[in-house]
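3.2 Worked example (two chains)
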Amino acid sequence: MNLPTIYLLRHGQTVWNVEERYQGQLDSPLTEKGKNQAKENALKLSKYINIKQVKFFSSPLGRAKDTSLIIAELSGLEDNQIIFDEKIKEFNYGIFEGKTKSFCRETLAVEFEAREADKYNYVLEGGESYAMVNLRLKTWLESVKNEKVIVVVAHEMINRALRGLYYNMKKEEMLTLRQGNDILIKLENSSEIILD
């Protein structure tokens, strides 16, 4: 499948990021640092593209939406030009959502250990696996394959899976990928570049 060049962003830091809580498809607000990260990412983007000339996709979850709105405002883009797409909302953590990692490790130890043993396939109660996320991301990639360049604001787990699909990585390699809240990544052909 031909794929567009993707400028890939993660939402700014949130309260729950600081508290080390699983967010998944629940939400918490951006911190002041998170808002500043969104502003910095808008400036980074402006060095490489005119955002008004490409399609701008965002997860509809509050933290990504708020990040996208900050980027749009600083880029002279109208809010209604952002495409909020359900297919790129965060991985669903099921029973872990809203809980701290330490709580899950201790109180939901059986589920925590089972997921750690097979992160790609394990499905938390009420949640998803990476295998399931990959299916929805493949559908989304199919829908954007005719674009030349796009901007995407999403989440760490989604961006990890998206990068893995983009390069046809082995799942073990994909699971090691990280992206900070202030990192802009350019996916193009067979390369991945972190942009300053």
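3.2.1 Second chain
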Amino acid sequence: MRTRTQIGIVGGGPAGLLLSHLLALRGVDSVLVEIRSRDYCEARQRAGVLEDGSVALLRSADLADRLDRQGLVHGGIYLQFDGQRRHVDFRDLTGGRTVTVYAQTEVVKDLIARRLTDGGALEFSVTDTEVADLDSDRPLLRYTDASGDRHEVACDAIAGCDGFHGICRPAIPPGVLTTWERDYPYAWLGILADVPPSTDELIYAHHRNGFALHSLRSPSTSRLYLQVSPDEDIGQWPDGRIWAELASRFKLPGWTLQQGPVLDKSITPMRSFVSAPMRYGRLFLAGDAAHIVPPTGAKGLNLALADVAVLAPALDALLHGDEQPAAAYSAACLERVWRSTHFSWWMTTMLHNTPGTDEMATQLQLSQLRYTVGSRAAATSLAENYTGFPVQLSAEPRRWVSGAR
């Protein structure tokens, strides 16, 4: 079956779904394909902290109804180390900027619901996805739908939003891309627990047993993490052992970690990865297809949203004969990507115990933590990077309105 659209989108995560919506606001047609089922996409547990600019972007795109009702606005984080817990006040340090705790799962639900309400072309549970003729002005998107029918879609451009293990980046010919990668010698064991949070804002804890993070999902649900080895067997971590280790790493006089049923648990390896350029011909990469950051800095979801905020107007301009925004897309995104990659690496190496290091390494980490909470300049740098920088939709916004042209 041969069909035609303006933009083919591979990947039904936040990047692909938001791009589809932003294009629709500009009157641009798209077809989005995703190998997973809708149920899977709406259930998988991922990041949960939105930068100030990401919230503004979702509001400007009329996607923030549930976010504004259910999101938890946070004005800072806690850094815990050396037997003490210190608050970093984002509002005070950045002139009022905040972050909002709202799970990626919920962002995806909101985007899918809106695209289906608006009549968007979303195909879940597809197989045998291919992209071809990427260096032509009519690249092709091929896939088999859930009913077994084979499709070939002629596009003006294709957006690869299909993650680190997707098919789009490997479709770029050898020698075009430069990649930088670092695997970390630790992972996160994360749990989702049916228990009210024991904190009002996130706690990042440096401990001799390893890093721990107390995050939130809602007033009744907590998300917590432990540093473990990348090859750790999750079967060796029954719920009781997890809660005991969390209690040990967060222990402070007069403070109690509330415990409850564990709803979900998994182990996530940690890596930094950047691939450049983020464009080849009429293929544009966005989100995890182009870059990965360790989750310590809460940047992955926000980078994906920022990428497509730049990409949507660039594609719109390309369709109208203006090549300049598309040509500038990669460089514009990579500036933010590298800043976020550095910040995520800095937070990660400051807070985690690296196997094989000595006591001097621990003391250097503690020195950095003391400086970060003791110096207004250092705390401001953390706050600025954590809350993020404004998302630029385009240098000269074109038709940033809902409805037809």
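3.3 Remarks
Residues 394-405 have pLDDT under 50 and may be disordered.
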